[in-house]
Each structure stands twice: as C-alpha cells, then as structure tokens.
Design goal:
2 domains, 11 helices, alpha+beta, five-stranded antiparallel β-sheet, three-stranded antiparallel β-sheet, 369 residues, 17% strand
C-alpha cells in the first residue's frame, strides 16, 4: 500500500475517507429507528396496562352490582323478578362467551338499569304498618321558643304483647329545657349492636324521648339485609320514657344504660330543634330506613353535627353497641372525676335502680347520676 493511501485510511479512522459521512448517517438513522421502536413499544405497553386496569375496574363494579342487583330484585320485586333477571344474565353470558369483554360491559349496563329502577322506588303511602309504628308524630312550632308535638306515644304495658295504645299531645317551652340524656339498649346479649335513644329533660318534670326506628309493615320482621333494600321506613317516635325506655328495661329485659350527656344548653337546643324539624319532614316526606346509612344511630349524625360541627364519622355509628364508649372517649358523657368508661357503664345500668317505689323517670336517675 502506498504512503498516500495509508494517510487516507489513517485520517478516516480506519475507513476510507470518502465514505465517512454517509456511513455515519446510516448508523445514526438506524439508532433513531431503534429508539423510536422502543418508545412505541413502551407506549403500547402503557396503553395495554391502562385498558387492562379499566377492564378490571369495570369487571369488579359489574360483579358487585350483580350481587347487589339480585338482592334488589328479590326484595323489591319478588322471587319471579329475581329468576327472570338471573336467566337474562345467563343468556348474556352464553351469547357473550365468544368475547368476554362484551359480556362485562353489557352486564354492567344491565345492572345500571336495575340501579336506576331501585333509586326511583318511593315509599308506599298505602302500606299497612304494625301497631307500634302506625301513627307518625307531628310537630308544630307556635313561635321561636314553643312547640307542640302531636301523637307522642304513651303505651301502657302489662306485658310485651299486652298493652294499651295511648297517644298524647303536649306543648313544650325551650326556655325550660334542662339537658339531654343518651340511652343505649342491648338485646339478646349482643354487645356490638344496640339501639340508641335520646331523651330531653324539661324543668317541669316531663322528659321527651326520641327513638329512631324501623317502621315495619304488617307481618314483616326486622332483619339487617332487607334493611338495605328499602323494606322499611325510618320512623321517629317521640315518646314518654314510661313507654319507650320502660318497655326495654322492664318488659323486654334488655340491658338498658342511661347516660347524662355533657352537652350544654345551647348544644342541646340545637340538637332538639334539628330533630323536631327532621321529624316533621319525615311526616310530610317519608324516607326509607337503611341498615348502614339511615339507622337508629347514623340518622342522628346530622343532629350531632349541629352541636359538634367538626364531627365527621366513626365506625361505631355502625357498630352502635359501642356508641356509648365512643361518646365517652369524645368527652360527650358526663362522669365523675377519674371515672373510667367501664366504671361509668356499670353505674348506669338502669335495671339496678328499678324498685317500683318512685315514678320511673325519677327512679332511673339516682342522685348524682
């Protein structure tokens, strides 16, 4: 090889000098193609992940709605409707098995239709109610400080099933409002589930009790699952303590606990006003009971917020047998200095004070309770 040729090779880094630029461009172009392919692959993978996540979400929602929808069809439309709904979904499954995604989206649309139908179910004004919940109380405000409650329940019990159905009408003055008590009633030995009640004390000696209950149609028993499916109404009972509390402590033999709350006069009045107005709203516009969202405890949550606006939610509103412990921990229950919740609860078991020697409302409130 001649000296000039060697110089050409050395100057081009081991390649013929005349071909350097085109060859480098080819190499750079190939590298760019590989980068573009990598980016495209990443985008394709990302797109697949997104579609897979969407599909899984739709599938999960569809399954949950399907299970819920079967309950809605059974409880609100009957066994025949449930069977028809099940058959329709099986037909969709058979027709859609060739492409499972079509099945999922079609089933979701069907369940949304059931949900829309369920939402539009309204309380039936022609329902025949069981005798305890036959009458709904009415509230009339005479002025800003005085109100009348019509049809306060005042049943006179001889046994659980033998009683006189009495109702009274009474006018109250907020200037005579003294305080509010919380009652928690456990039945059948259950500790995590209970019935909660409020009672408002007035200086004239009358205590107005409130119990938020399921309004049961004639011939129907209360149960947790039907309570999710619009089988009962939420019913506010304004009552005497000789009725609503005495029934539980003396005749049903429930474990009834009565606590004096730490609510001041202003807070107590706000809670009472809200409950009176909501009670009248239920009289005019009935609403369904819901085991989870509108039960005897959770229905009181908006009233609690009248006095404690910062209170949001606590799981013990669902596990309402623990509602008294929750109230103690939040400082809502009056108690002796240094007294633990266990000590307070033991002291506030109503049955230990019932001797039948005094009026019921006095007897269950020993001095310093």
């Amino acid at each position: 090889m001649s000296l000039p040729e060697q110089e050409k090779i050395i100057s081009s880094g081991g390649q013929p000098a005349g071909n350097t630029a085109p060859e480098q461009n080819k190499i750079a172009g190939a590298a760019g193609d590989f980068d573009a392919a990598d980016n495209g692959g990443e985008k394709q993978k990302s797109g697949k992940k997104g579609r897979f996540f969407l599909y899984r979400t739709v599938l999960t929602v569809s399954i949950l709605l399907t299970i819920w929808g079967w309950g809605a069809l059974f409880y609100c439309a009957g066994l025949t409707a449930l069977v028809i709904g099940f058959i329709v979904q099986m037909i969709i499954l058979i027709l859609g098995v060739w492409r499972i995604k079509n099945l999922v989206y079609l089933n979701l649309l069907l369940n949304i239709g059931v949900l829309v139908w369920f939402i539009n179910i309204k309380p039936n004004p022609d329902t025949i109610w069981q005798i305890h919940w036959r009458k709904k109380p009415r509230v009339k405000w005479l002025n800003d400080r005085q109100f009348t409650v019509i049809d306060i329940r005042d049943f006179k019990y001889r046994t659980v099933d033998d009683f006189d159905c009495d109702y009274i009408t009474r006018t109250f003055d907020l200037d005579k409002l003294e305080g509010m008590d919380l009652a928690v009633s456990h039945w059948d030995g259950m500790q995590n589930v209970a019935h909660t009640l409020l009672t408002f004390r007035f200086s004239d000696g009358f205590n107005l009790a409130l119990s938020a209950e399921t309004r049961l149609p004639f011939g129907m028993d209360q149960a947790a699952v039907p309570g999710i499916y619009k089988q009962y109404e939420i019913h506010y009972i304004w009552s005497t303590e000789d009725d609503i509390l005495k029934l539980r402590s003396n005749f049903r033999k429930d474990e009834l606990f009565l606590y004096r709350t730490a609510a001041n006069r202003e807070q107590t009045e706000k809670i009472l006003r809200y409950l009176l107005n909501y009670s009248q709203e239920l009289y005019e516009h009935p609403k369904f009971y819901n085991t989870l969202t509108e039960n005897c405890t959770t229905s009181l949550l908006p009233a609690i917020r009248q006095a404690v606006p910062e209170f949001k939610f606590d799981y013990r509103l669902i596990m309402n047998g623990l509602a008294d412990k929750m109230a103690y921990e939040k400082g809502w229950l009056a108690h002796r200095e240094g007294e633990s919740f266990a000590e307070l609860k033991k002291r506030r078991l109503v049955s230990q004070y019932i001797l039948g020697k005094k009026p019921y409302s006095e007897e269950i409130r020993p001095e310093g309770y």
